[in-house]
């Protein structure tokens, strides 16, 4: 009852403020007061979204929602290696620069994504037969060139993405084959030199709960810390699917990484379902979003919670997982679903602590 009264008080205050602003030319302030970023204020957790570069320029309602709802943004594809260096030595940062400028204009931070990965690398890199020494030079140059371009403008970088298999062994990639397991430590050392201000993350999927893969990250981070490698964060992507269920130990898992002293973040949250959606699936989805958000809010060093697109209009899910979709908090018409309300209410509860 007590918190309910506080809630009504806050709502009344918001209404009063909105009223006093009614004579101002813009209604943006009113809208901003109701978005997720306003709800996240004071919680210590930034609320983010992946951003589709084309939609950001071509879709005005989408653009407005990115600015209104979020205080950190991740380029969904625009900073990946194949996007920034499609031809060796010829960089194209146009789309990524546009997002960085947008973020700056809207008081948002940027998560850089991603520097070392097995996927979405340019053909010139994957199809040529480089020697290990050449690959090491290429990787170092990539990290210095890309991070150098954005130096000082990126809050956190996903330095190494998806380096483990499900069983906790290192994934077989061009990097592991040519450079051996130390490529990860090298990448973090180079990244720290290239932009000392950025928080440097490992990032992966299927590491929401305690399992062989998240155990491998836990061990890796401890090892890197012992070697004074500047790993600063563990990114939990958070791509869940209702048909597989939600891991029961998400909060415990986040807590153990928090205890290592690294930052944590949910970096690519979506909760997909087998179509068609129905009210029970939609409610279960909201619970999935909330469970991950609560796990983040329960620990000291969880710094952000990012959804992997906020609208089904641009979600990657239908294109990749056959028969699945409806994975984001807004539908295709940019209308909020129950998941949106649940995220907002969870943030507001946290803001009252
Ligand atoms: C996805 C994008 O959403 C798609 O647009 C693209 O076609 C493929 O990549 N893990 C990651 C993200 O780290 O970069 C991926 O993004 C989703 C899985």
Structure, explained:
The protein has one domain: Alpha-Beta Barrel (TIM Barrel), CATH 3.20.20.80. The protein starts with a helix and ends with a helix. The chain has an 8-stranded parallel barrel, surrounded by 5 helices. The chain is built from 16 helices and 10 strands. It is an alpha/beta fold. The protein binds (3S,4R)-3-hydroxy-2-oxopiperidin-4-yl beta-D-xylopyranoside. The site of (3S,4R)-3-hydroxy-2-oxopiperidin-4-yl beta-D-xylopyranoside (XIL) has 6 residues, from loops.
From the structure above, extract its key features.
10 strands, 353 residues, binds (3S,4R)-3-hydroxy-2-oxopiperidin-4-yl beta-D-xylopyranoside, TIM Barrel, disordered N terminus, 16% strand, alpha/beta, 8-stranded parallel beta barrel, single chain
Task: Please indicate the count of domains.
Answer: 1
> Residue share in helices?
40-55%
Number of helical regions: 16
Name of the CATH class: Alpha Beta
Any idea what the CATH architecture is? Alpha-Beta Barrel
Number of strands: 10
Largest sheet: 8 strands, parallel, barrel
The H-and-E topology, N to C, reads as: HHHEHHEHHEHHEHHEHEEHEHEHEH
Bound molecules: (3S,4R)-3-hydroxy-2-oxopiperidin-4-yl beta-D-xylopyranoside
């Amino acid at each position: 009852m007590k918190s309910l009264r506080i809630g009504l008080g806050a709502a009344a205050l918001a209404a009063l403020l909105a009223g006093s602003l009614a004579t101002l030319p813009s209604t943006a302030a009113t809208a901003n007061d109701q978005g997720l970023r306003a709800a996240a204020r004071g919680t210590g957790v930034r609320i983010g979204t992946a951003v589709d570069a084309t939609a950001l320029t071509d879709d005005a309602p989408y653009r407005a929602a990115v600015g209104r709802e979020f205080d950190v943004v991740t380029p969904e594809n625009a900073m990946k290696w194949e996007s920034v260096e499609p031809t060796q030595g010829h960089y194209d940062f146009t789309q990524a620069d546009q997002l960085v400028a947008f973020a700056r204009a809207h008081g948002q931070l940027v998560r850089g994504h991603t520097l070392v990965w097995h996927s979405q690398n340019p053909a010139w890199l994957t199809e040529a037969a480089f020697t290990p020494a050449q690959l090491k030079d290429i990787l170092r140059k990539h990290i210095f060139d890309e991070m150098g371009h954005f130096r000082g403008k990126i809050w956190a970088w996903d330095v190494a993405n998806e380096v483990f298999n499900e069983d906790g062994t290192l994934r077989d990639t061009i990097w592991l084959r040519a450079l051996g397991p130390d490529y990860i430590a090298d990448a973090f050392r180079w990244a720290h030199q290239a932009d000392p201000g950025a928080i440097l993350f490992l990032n992966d999927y299927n590491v929401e709960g305690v399992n062989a893969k998240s155990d491998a990250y836990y061990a890796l981070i401890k090892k890197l810390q012992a070697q004074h490698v500047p790993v600063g964060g563990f990114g939990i992507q958070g791509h869940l699917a209702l048909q597989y269920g939600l891991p029961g130990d998400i909060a415990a898992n986040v807590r153990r990484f928090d205890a290592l002293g690294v930052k944590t973040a949910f970096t690519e949250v979506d909760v997909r379902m087998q179509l068609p959606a129905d009210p029970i699936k939609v409610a279960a989805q909201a619970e999935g979003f909330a469970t991950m958000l609560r796990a983040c809010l329960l620990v000291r060093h969880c710094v952000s919670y990012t959804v992997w697109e906020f609208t089904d209009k641009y979600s990657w899910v239908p294109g990749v997982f056959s028969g699945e979709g409806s994975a984001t908090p807004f539908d295709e018409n940019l209308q909020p679903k129950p998941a949106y309300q649940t995220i907002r209410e969870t943030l507001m509860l946290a803001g009252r602590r």
